[in-house]
Write a structure and sequence with these properties.
- The chain starts with a helix and ends in a 5-residue tail after the last helix.
- It contains 10 helices and 7 strands.
- Strands 1, 2, 3, 4, 5, 6 and 7 form a 7-stranded mixed sheet that branches.
- It is an alpha+beta fold.
- The protein has 2 domains: about 130 residues, Beta Polymerase, domain 2 (2-Layer Sandwich), CATH 3.30.460; about 100 residues, no CATH class.
């Protein structure tokens, strides 16, 4: 095996299996039925968004925080976000009382054995469109959102880069999970599509280029800076070993970064 074949193999394994996908789809169907039964006409729409809709979600075995982002749009928009967050929490507690439930940013998290849901209460207005609780206001105000606008950007970038961007994102998200999440998952995806991949042809080229261009920012905690520096040093060593005709050593080195 070579560095390239190893990266291709790991990226392929980072796709949800048919069994895992079937299990998740059953859970989504159950969630939707229960939402309809519990809220009735109180909600006007409900749908998935995020990484599960753009093919960059990882199996739970590769990312313990792998989740399904789910939006619940309420018909009545008269209340503060905290009211709707409590409505979602009460709903989840009613049907999933034995599961882990907690609030995380503007979402109510439902942690099941095989998947984690992040349920976002939402309102809609003619002028502002969809709005979600604003973390900066301590969830007392709303902020505009377009939950699936990034999907088109990622898809276009993937197409223009010979379908290498989604496999690259899965590799980077796996590395991110292995290293205590120095990047927020969504922001990592956004950083990737803003990178330049001139002269890259295969997944190895894309991965090396992405790692070399990662940055957590000057004011990031030292541990995050150390994680990124380590990744960049390993990539530099892999390239050195390959240039000296030592493919097996290079493969062993890359496995320090991508097991």
């Amino acid at each position: 095996m070579t560095v390239l074949s190893h990266l291709n193999s790991v990226s392929s394994n980072a796709v949800l299996s048919s069994a895992e996908l079937e299990s998740i789809n059953r859970s989504i169907s159950t969630l939707e039925t229960r939402l309809a039964n519990y809220f009735g006409s109180e909600i006007k729409a409900k749908f998935r968004f995020g990484s599960s809709t753009r093919g960059t979600i990882l199996p739970r075995s590769m990312d313990g925080k792998s989740d399904i982002d789910y939006m619940v749009v309420f018909s009545n928009s008269d209340y503060k976000p905290s009211t709707y967050l409590q409505k979602i929490r009460r709903f989840v507690a009613t049907y999933y009382s034995s599961s882990e439930i907690f609030q995380s940013s503007p979402t109510i998290v439902l942690n099941l054995n095989h998947i984690r849901f992040e349920i976002v209460p939402t309102i809609e207005s003619w002028f502002y469109g969809l709005q979600i609780p604003a973390p900066a206001s301590n969830f007392s105000e709303w902020i505009e959102t377009d939950p699936n606008d990034f999907n088109a950007d990622l898809t276009n970038c993937n197409v223009s880069n010979n379908s290498k961007i989604k496999p690259l994102v899965r590799l980077l998200k796996y590395w991110n999970a292995q290293n205590s999440y120095p990047f927020e998952s969504f922001l990592l995806e956004k950083e990737v599509i803003n990178m330049s991949f001139w002269c890259c042809t295969d997944l190895k080229d894309y991965f090396f280029t992405a790692v070399e261009n990662l940055s957590v920012g000057f004011f990031a905690p030292q541990w995050k800076i150390n994680v990124v520096n380590r990744a960049q040093n390993i990539v530099a060593e892999v390239k050195r070993l390959e240039s000296q005709g030592m493919p097996y050593s290079a493969e062993n080195e890359i496995k320090k970064l991508i097991p």
